[in-house]
Amino acid sequence: MECTSMTEPKSERFFLPSDQPRKLSYYLELVLTNKVLILVTAAVVVMLGVVYVLIVPPTYESNLVIQVEDQSGGSSNLLGDLSSALQLKAGAPAEMEIIRSRLVVSAAVDKLRMYIDARPVMLPVVGRWLQVRPSGTSVSAPRFGLDSYAWGGETLEVDRFNVPGELEGKRFTLLSLGGGRFRLASDQADVNATGQVGTPLVLSNDLGTVELHVSKMIARAGERFELRRYSRLDVIDRLQRELTVQELGRESDVIGVTLTGRDRQKTAQVLNAIATEYLAQNLEYHALETRRTIDFLNGQLPRLKKQLDRSETAFNTYRNRYGTIDLAEQTKLLLEQSVDAQTKLLELRQKRSELNQRFTELNPAVGALDQQIGTLEKQLTGFQQRISDLPALEQQQVTLVRNLQVDTDLYMNLLNASQELDIAHAGKVGNVRVVDYAVAAERPVKPKKALVMVFALIGGLGLGMAVAFLKSAVFEGVRDPGSLEESVGLPVLAQIPRSPRQQALDRAANGNSVLAHRYPNEPAIESVRSLQVALQVMMLDPGKGLILIVGPSPGVGKSFVSLNLATLLANSGESVVLVDCDLRRGRLHKALGLPRSLGLAEFLREKAELDEVIRKGGAQLPDFVACGDYPEAPAYLLMSPRFTGLLATLRSRYRYVIVDTPPVLAVADSAIVGSHADLSLVVAREGATSLSELEHSIAALRQGGITPRGIVYNDMDMRRGQYGSRRRRYVGYYTYGEE
After folding, report:
1. What is the pTM of this model?
2. Cα gap 526→732, rounded to integer Å
3. pLDDT surpasses 80 at 286
4. How many Cα atoms within 13 Å fall on the side-chain side of residue 556?
5. Contact criterion met (CB below 8 Å) for 351 and 369
6. Does 458 share its domain with 522?
7. How far, in Å, are 64, 68, 224, 462, 522 from residue 432 at the CA level?
8. Sequence-ordered list of residues with C-beta below 8 angstroms from that of 506, at least 6 positions apart, any chain
9. Maximum distance among all alpha carbons in the chain?
10. What dihedral angle (degrees, nearest 10) is formed by the CA atoms of 182, 185, 190, 194?
C-alpha cells in the first residue's frame, strides 16, 4: 500500500518563483537532508585516498650544495688580468649548466650503470608492504606458500647487460636456480639460457647478441628477478630532466642540486656521483687551462729575454759614450707615462696573442682588447711627439731608458706569472667545492600522507555536496508546498506529515494497517481530517460525491490518502465506499487485510454481481471494492457501460464514492475513470514528485476533460526547514489527550 512511510526523498530541490533568490537556509537544508549521501561519498573518497597512500610507492628527495669560488684575483696582476680576459671565472649560471650537461651526467650514469634495471619480482600491489628486512645476508622466508616472489633481502648486482637496440626496454626474467646458477629468459627476445654468477653469459639470435655478467646474487632457488636494459642516451636525457639545479640566493655563487626517486639510497648515490664527476671535470678543465697558459708564457719568455738583453746593451753603450744626463722633472714624468703606456700595450698584445689561439676576431673579448690597444697606441703617439721636441741626446736617453724599463717589467711579470701558474698546476685546485654531499632521505616527500587524507576528506565532502546539488537539479523533487501552489496554480488542500507509525504498520503486515483506524490521533491523520472537512464543504450537493484520487507516479501515497480519507468519512457517520480501480497493481486490499479476488475486475467481466464484490466495512471502516484479479486489458473494461453503471449505482447508494486509480503518467486509466468523477485530487509526495511530473499530470487530466480541484501534499518531513519547525510545534501542541 502507498502511504507516508517512505524512505528518504529522491530529490532535494525547492521550487521558488523565478524572481526569488534562494536563501542560505535552502542550501543548509539541502546538505542536512543529504547528509548520508555526502558522508558516504566522503568516506569513499577517503578510502580511495588511503588506498592511494598505501599503493603508490614513496618518493624520496636528496640534495647537495656546491660553492663556486672566485679565483680571478691571483697574486700577479698579469695573471689576474689574463684570467679575466680569458674568462676563466665561470660563475654560478654557467656552472649550473655544466652540472646538468651530458658530460657530467653521462659519467654518473656510466659509473652507476643506471641503464640496467634489476629488481626482484614481488607480489603484485601489496608485495612492497609485506617485505621483511632479514638479518645479515639471508633472505626472508616465503609467505603464504608463494616462494617464487621476493619477500625481503634479495640482491642482484649486474656489471654488464648489453642487448640489441630492438630489445632495449624489453623485459627479461632471471630465475634463481640455487648454487649461484640462474636462468635468463625472455619471450620477446627468444632467449632461454642458463648462466653462473661471476661468469659472462653471451647469447646470439636473429636480433643480435645479448651479454650478461652477474657479479652477485642473493636469492632462494625459484625466486625471480626482472631485468631491463634501457637506452643509455634515454637514461641520460631523463636524468638531465629530473635534475633540479638552481642558485641558492641571488648572486651567491652557491648552487643547490636536487633529485627525487623511489630508491632513497640510489637517489643519494646518483647525486654524489654527479658531484664527483663535476669536481673531476672542473679540476681537469682548470688544470688544462693553466697548462695552456704556462706553455704560452714559457714560449714568450725567451723572446722577451733577448729583447731585454738588447735594450740593456743599447743603454750601456749610450751611457759609456755620453754618460748620464740629468733629466728635468717634466721629462722624467713624460718618461714614466711613456713607460707605463708601453708596458700596458705590450701586455695587451700578449693577451691578444693568447686569445687568437682560441677565439676568432668576432669574439667580444678580442674586440675589447683591440679597443684598449688602439687607445694606448694613440697615447704613445702623443708621448713620442713630445719626446721628439727634446734635445737629441735627451731624446736618445729617454728612448733607451723607456725601452729598458718596459722590457724589464714585462719580462719579470711574465716570469712571475709562469712560476705562480706552475705552483697552481702542481696543487691541482679547481674553483668549486662541495659544501654538502647528498645523504639518503629518512622520510619521503611524496605522497604526503596527512595532506592526502586532508584533501581526500575535503574533496569527498565537496564531491558529496556536488552530487547532492546535481541530484537536486536533475530530479527536481518538490520540497515547498507554498511555492508549489504558485507553480501549478492549484491550492494545496492538505499537508500530510510523514508517519513513523504507518511505517511500523507496513513492516508488520499483519492484517488491518489503516492508520486512521489504528491511530486516529496521529498528526498525519489530523491532516487528512482537515482534507475531509475541506471536501465536505466543497461537495455539499448529495448527488455529487464521487472523488477521484490520482498521482503522477507510483509511490506518492494516493492509496494512503484514499484509504484514510474514506475511513475518516465512515467514522463521521457518512456512507462511504472505497473502490480500487487500479486493475494493474491494486494494493488496497492488503491494508484492509482482505483478499484481492472477487472484486472490480470480476464484476466488469460479468463473473460476479455488485453485491458480491462490495465488502462491508462495519462501523469504523468504509465499504470496499477490491481490484480483483488483474485482467489483460483493464482500460477496455473501465470504458465499458458496465463500469459506468457501477458508478451510477454506487452514487445512489453512498454519499461518498472514493476511487483510487493508477498513476496518471503511467497509463490512461485515471483519465478514463476521471471522466465520471465529481471532484479530482492530485497527490504529490515531498521529494519524490517533480514539478514537471505534476504539471504533465494536470495537463493530461485537463486534456481528458478533468479539472483537478487541488493538491494533497504528502509525506512532508517535519524535521526539515523553518516551515516544518512551525508545523511541528503546532501539531505537537494540539495532540489529543495532552494538556
Report:
1. 0.56
2. 11
3. no
4. 31
5. yes
6. no
7. 13, 4, 45, 52, 90
8. 1, 3, 5, 513
9. 167
10. 10
Containing domain of residue 52, as a range?
24-56+452-474
- Residue 160 is assigned to a structural domain of this protein: yes
Whether 222 contacts 148, CB under 8 Å:
yes
Is there a domain that residue 560 lies in? yes
- Amino acid 675 reads S
Same domain? For 465 and 490 the reply is: no
Per DSSP, the three-state class of 217 is strand
Model pLDDT for residues 596-622, shown as the tens digit of each residue: 888 999 999 999 999 999 999 876 889
Distances (CA, A) of 327 to 194, 332, 393, 396, 402: 97, 6, 11, 12, 13
CA 390, 392, 398, 403: dihedral to nearest 10 degrees?
Answer: 130
Is residue 193 within 8 Å of 174, Cβ to Cβ? no
Clarify whether residues 643 and 499 are in a common domain.
yes
Residues 712 and 603 in one domain: yes
- Calpha distance 340→352 (Å, rounded): 18
DSSP three-state, residue 40: helix
> Is residue 348 classed as helix, strand or coil in its secondary structure?
helix
Cell 641503464 belongs to 115
Would you say the C-alpha torsion 512, 513, 514, 517 has a positive or negative sign?
Answer: positive
β-pair type (623-625, 576-580): parallel
pLDDT tens digits, one per residue of 518-573: 888 888 899 999 999 988 888 878 778 899 999 998 888 898 999 999 999 999 88
CA trace torsion 382, 383, 388, 391 (10° rounding): 150
**Sign of torsion over alpha carbons 727, 729, 732, 738:** negative
- Residue 271 burial by CB count (10 A; 0-12/13-18/19+): exposed, middle or buried? buried
Query: From residue 351, how far is each of 356, 373, 446 by CA, in Å?
Result: 9, 11, 54
132 Cβ contact list (under 8 Å, min separation 6): 140, 151, 152, 153
pLDDT digits (tens, 9 = 90+) for 652-688: 999 999 999 999 988 888 889 988 999 999 999 887 8
In the 3-class helix/strand/coil scheme, how is 386-435 assigned residue by residue? HHHCCCHHHHHHHHHHHHHHHHHHHHHHHHHHHHHHHHHHHHCCCCEEEE
Other beta carbons within 10 Å of 276: 16
Domain boundary among the residues 474, 509, 530 is at 474
**What's the full length of the chain, in residues?**
739
CA gap 360, 365 in Å, rounded: 10
Rounded to the nearest angstrom, the gap between the alpha carbon of residue 176 and the centroid of all alpha carbons in its chain is 40
How far apart CA 729 and CA 739 sit, in angstroms, is 14
Q: Is there a single domain that holds both residue 684 and residue 560?
A: yes
- C-alpha cell at position 262: 623511489
Assign 369 to helix, strand or coil: helix
